[in-house]
Amino acid sequence: WWSKNSDRRLPPGPRPILFLGNVHQFPAEFQHKTFSEWRKQHGDLVFARLFQSKAIIVNSLCVAQDLLEKRSAVASDRPPMIFLNDVLGWDSDFGFMRYGERWRMQRKWTHLAFEKQAALKSYSPVQYRERAKLLSALLKHPKDYREHYQRFAAALIMEITYGYTLVSDDDEFFRRTQHAIQLTLNVGGAAAASLIDFFPIIKHVPAWLPGAGFMRDALVARKAVREHIDIPYNAVKYDVISGQAKSSFVSSLIAQHLKNDTLTPYIEEEIKGSASGLYIVLTTFILAMVLHPDVYKKAQEEIDQVIGHSRLPNLEDRELLPYIECIIKELFRWNPPSPLGLPHSLTEDQEYNGYNLPGGAIVFTNIWQMTQDTEFYPEPEKFRPERFQKMDNDTAKRTDPRRFIFGFGRRICPGRHFADTNAWLGITSIVATLDICKARDINNNEITPGAFFSHGIVRYDPCIERLGDSTC
Ligand code: HEM
């Protein structure tokens, strides 16, 4: 009676079945779209069960702010993520860490490096240098624009984190990171792997057992993750000790702990973890501009008028280019890079709008649904930067998708200002120097790519058909 009664106060949701709960209704792909369907039937707050685990799906910005920001003291934990942390070895990365002292220490270091204005300003020489390399690569090999964007994003992170300058497109540090992330995504997509989070005992299944192929793949991925974490760290440590390290996030942490004699194996593991993590925004930009040449032309006119033809736009020019700002907001809204964010977890029972939200429940934030809110964004499926024009300050603030695409509360993305600045720099530099046009097929007809987006919790690539042989 008690269990039924307390269940009655749970938010509404799809009907569960015995043992599985709602697992059979959870799609393997495009979960955010299923969550939006559930919203039509059950509302902004939906309750579901994954086996015995309880899940709360938040489908509106208002509820996300009430729960994850106003009550951040009890809504900043992460679910255990046993597969990622224990099996694949991402446990020293604080993005996946449980809320607590370890997380707090790494978050504080990252805050100093990526959220303080002075630190962000000090990165501009590296940003301008990498921007020049990006433009030159795009001009020489326009067909490989995806690789160039990946390299741009990685080069910035690597330089600032480790003081390491990528030397070529085939750079071994860059490839190692890509490899670790790709293997994680591949093996993490296996159904058996996802089961480990609900039945942790599976993680003890020996890799040699018939049917345990996913464990063999996981061991390969684990080795790649370890190398991605250890090798760059060890190189920086060697440079710090031999007195030839370039200034970077990791080198300054190592130097500080060496000086205080506090560089214990535990601290070393923490520094490695905080160092491991724009390319999607830039790829979406190319897709949107191929599909909307009128928008690209207006952006070019704005840059020509304000900046002229003798120099590239610099970060100080940002406020003078309002139309570009609208394009960036619309890119973030049209294809949010992380449509479900990262899951939070409640540490205590909560009462919300008459519902009981149980402690321990996983909270999924349906960021994609927030980008589709017709009250703020009429005809949300259309790419229309003009929707952000001619707004008073209040409305501009309320409708800015950067309020939610980077997550919520104490776990909000610490790289958000850096990612936003780099997206702006990449986009304005391309608009200032290059034309973007559709590729042509062998009969010289233009190819119009479709706006299809792939799914995923942490990655969300627009699928653009590769350009043909034309140079644009
Ligand atoms: C357009 C680019 C980016 C987007 C859309 C994005 C989005 C997000 C989102 C949605 C979260 C989850 C927040 C939550 O739990 O509520 C997150 C967390 C995080 N992001 Fe980003 N991010 C971006 C770029 C970056 C960059 C460049 C860095 C590194 C400098 C970074 C580092 C992190 C870290 C470390 C976390 C975990 C924070 C924590 O758990 O305390 N992100 N990001």
From TrEMBL:
Q: Which GO terms describe its cellular component?
A: membrane
Keyword Repeat attributed: no
Its needed co-factors are:
heme
Question: Do you know which InterPro entries this protein is assigned to?
Answer: Cyt_P450, Cyt_P450_CS, Cyt_P450_E_grp-I, Cyt_P450_sf, Cytochrome_P450_fung
Q: Which GO terms describe its molecular function?
A: heme binding; iron ion binding; monooxygenase activity; oxidoreductase activity, acting on paired donors, with incorporation or reduction of molecular oxygen
Swiss-Prot/TrEMBL keywords: Heme, Iron, Membrane, Metal-binding, Monooxygenase, Oxidoreductase, Signal, Transmembrane, Transmembrane helix
Spell out the family assignment given in the record's similarity comment.
Belongs to the cytochrome P450 family.
**Name this polypeptide is given:** Cytochrome P450
Please give the organism. Answer: Wolfiporia cocos (strain MD-104) (Brown rot fungus)
Taxonomic classification, please?
Eukaryota, Fungi, Dikarya, Basidiomycota, Agaricomycotina
